[in-house]
Fold this sequence. Notes:
Layout: H1 5-10, H2 15-51, H3 53-56, H4 62-100, H5 107-113, H6 130-141, H7 173-183
Helix pairs in contact: 2-4
Amino acid sequence: MGLTRKFLKDLGLESEQIEKIVNEHTDVVSAIKEDLDTSNTKIKELEKETKEEVDLTNYVEKGKYETLETEYNTFKTETAGKETLAKKQGLVKEKVLKELKINEKIYSKVLKDIDFAKVELDGKGEIKDIETLKSSIKNDWGDFITTEKASGVNTATPPVGDKNETQKEPENLAEALQQKIEAK
Length: 184
């Protein structure tokens, strides 16, 4: 299931919120794609170099070959780590930060504060022990969690008249008319 405008609209979000989410998602995905393209290009170049027999004469010495192999394996490990980190960050945004209603403006700061080495994914690609992560974020970033309070309509207080507090209540119609004439 992809993050589409229809999906977000079905969640009841307004178009302005949908645009913000789609733009943020597009920026993140674009950055990840660029990193992935760069990484894949570098991997292909390194694989090509190791496979070319013409260049093997340059690596006859054991130390040079081992260095290149170590660099290649390190690069593959780093690339896999970046892809895993990007997936974890996406899941934390989608499954934790949005659910906790953390202000979107501070997502990047919250993500920097999380130790993603401790965030584990299960076999389905979901975050293990998500409730512990949520409670940790609530404790650290609770001031930035937006809450909606339902309140009733504010009833207006009826205005107090110009009634003279020392004036007594009229006992009959004549007194009431007399007080009204005097008030004018």
